[in-house]
Amino acid sequence: MIDRKHFEALKKELKQFGIKREHAIRDSREVINLSKQIIHYIHRNEFKRTNALISKIKNKVKKIPKHALDTDINRVALQEYVEAMAYHHFVKYKKLISKSKLKVDAESYLLGLADLSGELVRRAGAEIIRKNYKEAERIKKFVNLLYGEFLGLDLRGSDLRKKSDALRWNLKKLEETMLDFTRAIRGR
């Protein structure tokens, strides 16, 4: 009536799925952690430490499955990876890294870029403190251009819509910071 071999095969299949899922979770957590470290060191201009982490994270990202295994942690990891690598590329090369260079899907790329804007707000503030006003202005211009590109996307109520709103808010914060700074300079 019931084929036990069939259920043994199902049991084996579920066990393999569980193993793959656990590996994906572990690797994703490592990518998230490495991404945070990279951003931390870039904010402190410690690029020697950053470079070692970048080669490590690139190897880890290759292990993350592109499809979900009943968890979204792999998607979060790719988004964090994009944010860290885009931040590094922007600081080092003064431009945006391409999606093809990162080898990620469009959604992960865009989510990571939206998050990048928050790190750029922090960097612009640090540049103002260092009296590097041209760099702060360049960052504001970049975030403005990035937001302009997001406006052209059809985002409709997705996570991307929320991240796009956060990008708009970060741009507004940058504009206000630059305006406050300009007023302070004129008031001297």
Task: Explain what you see.
By secondary structure, this protein is an all-alpha fold. It folds into 2 domains: 1-94, Methane Monooxygenase Hydroxylase, Chain G, domain 1, CATH 1.20.58; 105-188, Methane Monooxygenase Hydroxylase, Chain G, domain 1 (Up-down Bundle), CATH 1.20.58.200. It is built from 7 helices and no strands. Helix 1 (4-43) runs parallel beside helix 3. The longest helix is centred in the N-terminal third of the chain and has 40 residues, at 4-43. It is elongated, with a radius of gyration of 21 Å. The termini are far apart. The mean pLDDT is 92.
In short:
It contains 7 helices and no strands. With 188 residues, the protein is an all-alpha fold. The protein folds into 2 domains: 94 residues, Methane Monooxygenase Hydroxylase, Chain G, domain 1 (Up-down Bundle), CATH 1.20.58; 84 residues, Translin, domain 2 (Methane Monooxygenase Hydroxylase, Chain G, domain 1, Up-down Bundle).
Which features would summarize this protein structure in a list?
mainly alpha, Methane Monooxygenase Hydroxylase, Chain G, domain 1, 80% helix
What coarse outline follows from CA principal-axis ratios?
A: elongated
Q: Which structural class do you get from the secondary structure elements?
A: mainly alpha
Query: How many separate domains make up the residues?
Result: 2
Residue windows where pLDDT falls under 50 for at least 5 positions: none
CATH class of the largest domain: Mainly Alpha
Give the SSE layout.
Blueprint: H1 4-43, H2 47-61, H3 73-93, H4 99-102, H5 106-129, H6 133-151, H7 159-186
Helix pairs in contact: 1-2, 1-3, 2-3, 3-5, 5-6, 5-7, 6-7
